[in-house]
Backbone:
């Protein structure tokens, strides 16, 4: 993999310290239609998460937002802003997702209403094994049935997220990195804490099976 | 102008020698414009080190006329008119394996601004961070192109054209994103990326 040379980065840093602020270079000649209104913010989200919030495969996998519970979406936007989520990503989510409370509520309400087809791309041969874990758990590994909280159709409720239709690789990554990215570092006890032991006890194969199964739920 | 003559000599000799293997890939046809080491030349972008899936998809997009900006219509539509899918794959694989060299031809003073936009976007203007899709070192992934080290002129032209609505039929996020960039943003991004190795 190609990397930016250290010398180059150093020179960039030195130049940056010379007084160039991060962000826009020229507001005056910017095209109209951007700025702070809700519609523009929602389209800003869609630039990464898909025109209907269905998710997207970039260098990072952007999760599906469509149909997600508005409480969950609002909670995550707040968690990003407070630095409690995905601190290990190379992109500064607190900056990118820094919306004021009214804007967070409006954005969350909008995405909850969308219902596009699933993004797809999950391996179909894993879905049967995933369905069994989703509905029955793995008793010998102390893993409860996912359906107990996320609902038999994976639609979630309130602060418990919808899983139905979620992008396969996003669910895999989230469960695989739970303790690093979503775990104890928050300092704040949330309902998400219940996921930590579950994610820890799942094997990679079980994670892939669950992710494949829920990606096909509607 | 001796340099230009030299380049043409290299192109012609390179084309001649690769022509000796005419039963293999028609690489010399690409080399006329993109250069014998595929580092790009004038309006023709660098192909060396570009993502395999991206190159293959672009060749198909030229062929089905989805990629419809002026230089594509002028040069690439005819160039790939008789290209079969297997040859497109072979060409894409060949060029993706060549080592890329950075163009280094942007405005060095704009690099910090360009890097800030690339890494963090401009949230207050609803411009997303390029790095989320193109990767932290602008290396691209799958069908998403490597941007690091492409020439300033090519990067600027492509960002301008995305914002103007070209290539919209590909249904990618870029028209929406580039449309929010100011001319100064585009100059800064193209400058920064031209130096990325």
Residues:
């Amino acid at each position: 993999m190609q990397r930016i040379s250290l010398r180059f980065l150093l020179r960039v840093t030195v130049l940056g310290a010379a007084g160039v602020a991060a962000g826009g270079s020229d507001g005056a000649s910017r095209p109209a239609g951007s700025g702070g209104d809700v519609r523009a913010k929602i389209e800003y989200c869609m630039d990464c998460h898909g025109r209907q919030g269905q998710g997207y495969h970039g260098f990072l996998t952007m999760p599906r937002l469509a149909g997600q519970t508005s409480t969950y979406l609002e909670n995550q936007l707040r968690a990003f802003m407070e630095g409690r989520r995905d601190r290990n990503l190379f992109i500064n989510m607190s900056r990118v997702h820094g919306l004021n409370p009214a804007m967070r509520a409006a954005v969350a309400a909008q995405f909850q209403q969308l219902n596009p087809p699933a993004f797809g791309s999950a391996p179909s041969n894993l879905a049967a094994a995933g369905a069994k874990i989703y509905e029955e758990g793995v008793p010998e590994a102390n893993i409860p049935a996912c359906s107990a909280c996320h609902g038999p159709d994976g639609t979630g409720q309130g602060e418990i997220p919808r899983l139905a239709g979620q992008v396969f690789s996003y669910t895999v990554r989230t469960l695989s990195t739970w303790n690093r990215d979503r775990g104890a570092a928050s300092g704040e006890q949330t309902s998400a804490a219940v996921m930590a032991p579950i994610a820890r006890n799942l094997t990679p194969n079980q994670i892939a099976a669950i992710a494949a199964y829920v990606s096909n739920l509607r | 102008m001796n340099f230009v003559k030299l380049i043409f000599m290299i192109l012609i000799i390179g084309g001649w020698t690769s022509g000796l293997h005419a039963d293999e890939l028609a690489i010399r046809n690409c080399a006329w414009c993109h250069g014998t080491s595929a580092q790009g030349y004038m309006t023709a972008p660098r192909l060396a080190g570009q993502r395999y899936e991206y190159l293959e998809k672009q060749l198909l997009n030229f062929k089905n006329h989805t990629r419809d900006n002026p230089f594509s219509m002028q040069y690439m539509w005819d160039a790939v008119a008789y290209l079969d899918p297997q040859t497109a794959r072979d060409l894409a694989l060949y060029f993706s394996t060549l080592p890329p060299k950075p163009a280094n031809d942007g405005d060095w003073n704009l690099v910090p601004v360009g890097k800030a936009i690339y890494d963090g976007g401009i949230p207050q203007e609803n411009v997303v961070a390029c790095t989320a899709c193109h990767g932290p070192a602008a290396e691209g992934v799958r069908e998403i192109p490597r941007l690091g080290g492409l020439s300033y002129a090519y990067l600027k032209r492509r960002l301008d054209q995305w914002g103007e609505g070209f290539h919209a039929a590909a249904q990618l996020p870029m028209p929406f994103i580039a449309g929010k960039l100011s001319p100064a943003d585009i100059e800064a991004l193209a400058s920064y990326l031209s130096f990325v190795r």
Summary: Confidence is low (pLDDT under 50) at residues 9-28 of chain A. The radius of gyration of chain A is 19 Å. The CA atoms of residues 37 and 103 of chain A lie 9 Å apart.
